[in-house]
Task: structure prediction
Amino acid sequence: MPRPKSIDKATILAAAEELITETRGLSFTMDMVAAKAGISKGGLTYTYPSKDGLVQDLLKRELSRFIAERESFTAGDQPVDRLRAHVRASAEQKHIFQTRAAHLMAALSHEAGNLERVQSFYREIFDLAEPSTPEGRRARQAFLAIEGLFLLRGLGLMQVSDDEWDDVFAQALECI
Result:
């Protein structure tokens, strides 16, 4: 009797990430994910009964990857040190991660429940800067500048050269 084929979550997530990038996060379906992963739709729905669950796992994986990278840049225990680490980690993201993350944000915007985790992530970072001090206000502006550039470039709304990218992030770091 042949052994049943096991479904690998990593393969499914990789296929879904590719599709999110290809469709800009707007129109990927479970059928498309199953086909890209090389599994049956039944196998996919056994592992992920809903698209929402799949997107949640994609989000967890992407946030975990980014947070680990951000932590590698953290030097000091002040809130502004964590904000500075966020800017540095964002600056170092490879273009494929920028694009994938931006398109994941687009996919999330269609699912209110998933959006809460992203909102919490950004709120935590935004709140690291103390708005009652000049340094805190500059840090908030720097954060908003880099996140705006991240979305503009990642979603393909504006062409941004690597030199422009590096310059904006260098200026942001000077502000923090």
Residues 69 and 89 are 6 Å apart (CA to CA). DSSP finds nine helices and no strands in the chain.
